[in-house]
């Protein structure tokens, strides 16, 4: 039985003549956190959108639990890509109950998730009065309502203050112990290093590095080397 929940083989996405993702191959171990690093426009979001079914690959293969990816796998995948899909005129609990209805889950799951994302004390407050950090935690709650095996997060700390970042970081770190594997994208090296077990560095659509984090390595130099090496490759 494979140790990997997700395997990407030669994944490519083209937009007319522009190659956004170029033959990316990557394996993600079960119950781990993979940090996908790269500068803005590197191809991180496009890669995650293909994994989550938002975009169709131009070529390549995605295996989920050792089988070719299909729409039925979405029941085991949660995603927070771009802005959280939440209703601002409702409370957190009401939003989570809507998500439960969509998945055919009992409302007790909404109560469980509200506890996980630490918003129980704000269950009477409408989302429009939430801080940015609270909205991101609710977005995470919506993404895990179906108790996914794989959670995909695209730049989840964008726009958060240091307290919001710390709260979200601790929440993300707790997921592998709950049986949730996480793919986390960011352009901020220091953020990813604090939560990830392994990192992948993508630049100009090319995966230039993938491996475990070694605290003795100069990761900033590694990051810059990959970015510089792949600069202009697809032009």
Automatic annotation (TrEMBL):
Task: Tell me the superkingdom of the source.
Answer: Bacteria
Q: Which Pfam families match?
A: ABC_tran
What does the record give under GO molecular function?
ATP binding; ATP hydrolysis activity
- Indicate yes or no for the key word Transport: yes
Keyword flag S-adenosyl-L-methionine:
no
Q: Which InterPro entries match?
A: AAA+_ATPase, ABC_Gallidermin_ATP-bd, ABC_transporter-like_ATP-bd, P-loop_NTPase
Membership in a protein family: Belongs to the ABC transporter superfamily.
Q: Which residues form the ABC transporter domain?
A: 6-229
Report the SMART domains cross-referenced here. AAA
State the name under which the record lists this protein: Lantibiotic protection ABC transporter ATP-binding protein
Name the keywords, alphabetized.
Answer: ATP-binding, Nucleotide-binding, Transport
């Amino acid at each position: 039985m494979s140790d990997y929940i997700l395997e990407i083989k030669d994944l490519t996405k083209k937009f007319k003549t522009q190659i956004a993702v170029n033959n990316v191959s990557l394996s993600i171990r079960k119950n781990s956190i993979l940090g996908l690093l790269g500068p803005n426009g590197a191809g991180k979001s496009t890669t995650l959108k293909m994994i989550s079914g938002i975009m169709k690959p131009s070529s390549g293969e995605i295996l989920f639990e050792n089988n070719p990816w299909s729409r039925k796998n979405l029941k085991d995948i949660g995603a927070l890509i771009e802005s959280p899909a939440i209703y601002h005129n409702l409370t957190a609990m009401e939003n989570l109950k809507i998500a439960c209805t969509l998945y055919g889950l009992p409302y007790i799951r909404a109560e469980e998730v509200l506890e996980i994302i630490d918003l129980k004390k704000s269950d009477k407050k409408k989302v429009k009065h939430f801080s940015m950090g609270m909205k991101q935690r609710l977005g995470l709650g919506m993404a895990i309502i179906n108790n996914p095996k794989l959670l995909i997060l695209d730049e989840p700390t964008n726009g958060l203050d240091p307290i919001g970042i710390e709260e979200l970081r601790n929440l993300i770190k707790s997921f592998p112990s709950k049986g949730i594997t996480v793919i986390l994208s960011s352009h901020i090296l220091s953020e990813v290093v604090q939560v990830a077990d392994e990192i992948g560095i993508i630049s100009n659509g090319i995966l230039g590095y993938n491996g475990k984090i070694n605290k003795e390595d100069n990761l900033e130099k590694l990051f810059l080397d990959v970015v510089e090496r792949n600069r202009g490759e697809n032009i």
